[in-house]
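User: I'm putting together a teaching handout on how sequence relates to shape, and I'd like one worked example. Could you take Glutamate dehydrogenase from Bombardia bombarda, show the sequence you're using, and then write out its predicted structure as tokens right after it?

Assistant: Happy to. First the sequence, then the structure tokens directly below it.
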Amino acid sequence: MSNLPSEPEFEQAYNELASSLENSTLFDKKPEYRTALKVVSIPERVIQFRVIWEDDAGNLQVNRGYRVQFNSALGPYKGGLRLHHSVNLSILKFLGFEQTFKNALTGLNMGGGKGGADFNPKGKTDAEIRRFCVAFMTELSKHIGADTDVPAGDIGVSGREIGWMFGAYRKIRNKFEGVLTGKGLTWGGSLIRPEATGYGLVYYVSHMLEYAGAGNWVGKRVAISGSGNVAQYAALKVIELGGIVVSLSDSQGTIVADGNNHITPEDIETIMAIKVKRQSLTAFDHYGKLKYVAGARPWVHVDKVDIALPCATQNEVSEDEAKALVASGARFIAEGSNMGCTQEAIDVFEAERKEKKGAAIWYAPGKAANCGGVAVSGLEMAQNSQRLPWTTEEVDEKLKTIMKNAFFDGLNTAKKYIPDTEGELPSLVAGSNIAGFVKVAEAMFEQGDWWTKA
């Protein structure tokens, strides 16, 4: 691959999957899957296009737009749209690659994809963002559809932007169809969709707690990073189940609870309002009960914690921060963000798991732990196909079932393919990687996307 430009984020995601497969017995039992890995690591299609829009001063602006349609063996491409100045092909390939196996773990018929643009919504007016969304969808509409590719929101794309994009698609294609998820409730959206990733993360960790004999959330001290959609609803669900939230963060810094203080639902509601205005946590008045640490993530600033939930962005837990979490007494860490931990951090957690067995910290990767968001997107697609809305209770129960199945799928696959010693907790990262890969590889084989000699 020396003829290809370096793509560090994608290479990290690929290497994590490949190492899980290599260090298991999968290739010993089924050596033909090495061929499948070669095929599945290349996107089916990469679309790149320019987006020309006009700012409020009447000046022409141009950005790069992308859609990586990674794999459709299990269903239409499915994955979010990210509007952020950091967006590039490496990041979107990594996200689309991860999305392929994450979607497989939901058990729903969805392939994997990801897209977006290097457009930064911060500092833009509502009118400028709307004009950008219309211009972006003018080109993207040629490549998506309810049975082809169904994008959703991601960083920088909330329900408001989804609305503008859907309106543009409807006018351009003259179709009212479930082409986007995260829609408004009166025009095809699903209940629980905004909450789904955060809620699903907590439901997943509930099974980790139970399996490890650690009880439930009551009294557990929980460190959370991020303060966007995922972090907000994860925090609210943790509190509802009796847990104690001790941190939230954003790109500017982190808020941490000292001593017996903790973050309350009222605090989270205030932060939600701040984030709607696209302001940082510096605008949050915590009345002295919390401390603000500028330019920092929470992991080395929290005291004793039981559970860590990275919910901000990729590579937000480093090797040193992983060691700090182990030293803080954390027993469980699960990613609400995609690839939230560096490979070095994962190595720390996995080494602890092997050495200390049942008393060790137990790590769950984002492709399993945060699949609740895309799962409810899949449920939204099903409701759109039926032209029928489901109740909050119906969607929430289906979400709980999907997260339970994702947990046990990874757990049981690890038991099947990963050698272990007595008393050792199964490797959820290896088990989830293998389980997602096998589902996709088998579908691709049956459809003729790869084959072996007779």
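A couple of points you could highlight for students: The mean pLDDT is 95. The chain has 15 helices and twelve strands.
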